[in-house]
């Protein structure tokens, strides 16, 4: 889509103008509404902002990851809840699906995803397999021309609303036995449990697979597909990092405008050096993390970023975004803490992204392995 700095600037400006015109109104209300904003999804699809990195021959825009990062950030600076839709339509499970799905799977599912009428959820974590994802126990066993899925998934993305789930499963023992399947909502043997709520207000529901039979055509990646899945998951981490930075910058901007106008002790808050230094620190952290995020997106080979650059970018962006939201809330006092502005929402969301998609501790482990040139097993010795 874009090949030069001028093209990217024009693209960013067009997305910004669209967001201000169509998404600014109702942004605060959307942030506090728990459900998936389907009307926003269809609106973004009409604007060509879903499937940005999906090849044109598959119905997408054939753009780069850097374009998708620009889109999620420009949308998020106006309506942070709508940035979640850009994430779902460009990063996360959709990017893994677009990279590895068969032609038949693309024909059946992609049109709905790219039109904003259908949603793909990611079911990875289990009660005993969170960060240690290779410990997953959900199985998929061949039975004629079908597979039977059994197990439980928790913390699954879009589990309350998704029409289709990309489910990490075990076809056999060891890491080499891990792959993934596609399970449609309503398939017999799939039970969606009672929704629970995160601190952010988002909802999730446990997924129970009990003799859930799916056609063999719904296998996305068979045995040995784990490394490919994690490569695709690195894209999700970039979407996570982009939203962290964007909401941090949104909180920063709201707080900056506040301190320039709010007066205490006969002077604006901006006149106090303690406040000035907070904004200086926020600006340095946000700008530094932005450069790391842009590097990871720009250097993505064949659409998939490197694990090291992704880990560095997510770690920096998660910390910078939360720091900015936290300090913005502090300088705004009660107004920042209230639901009258988006700052407290930004605080809650950025806190969650320090856990989701790879905790800060897991990212540090991954970065250290690359820096020191060796792998450090976290498993207890047998």
UniProtKB/TrEMBL annotation:
Cofactor names: FAD
Record's protein name: Acyl-CoA dehydrogenase
Highest taxon, organism lineage: Bacteria
Stretches assigned to the Acyl-CoA oxidase/dehydrogenase middle domain: 122-211
GO biological-process terms attached to the record: butyrate catabolic process; fatty acid beta-oxidation using acyl-CoA dehydrogenase
Residue span(s) of domain Acyl-CoA dehydrogenase/oxidase N-terminal: 5-117
Entry keyword set: FAD, Flavoprotein, Oxidoreductase
Entry annotated with the keyword Oxidoreductase: yes
Record flagged with keyword Cytoplasm: no
Lineage, highest ranks first: Bacteria, Bacillati, Actinomycetota, Actinomycetes, Pseudonocardiales
Family recorded in the similarity comment: Belongs to the acyl-CoA dehydrogenase family.
Location of the Acyl-CoA dehydrogenase/oxidase C-terminal domain: 225-371
GO MF annotations in UniProt: acyl-CoA dehydrogenase activity; flavin adenine dinucleotide binding
One Pfam family this sequence matches: Acyl-CoA_dh_1
InterPro entries from the UniProt entry: Acyl-CoA_Oxase/DH_mid-dom, Acyl-CoA_Oxase/DH_mid-dom_sf, AcylCo_DH-like_C, AcylCo_DH/oxidase_C, AcylCoA_DH/ox_N, AcylCoA_DH/ox_N_sf, AcylCoA_DH/oxidase_NM_dom_sf
Organism whose genome encodes this protein: Amycolatopsis vastitatis
SUPFAM superfamilies tied to this protein: Acyl-CoA dehydrogenase C-terminal domain-like, Acyl-CoA dehydrogenase NM domain-like
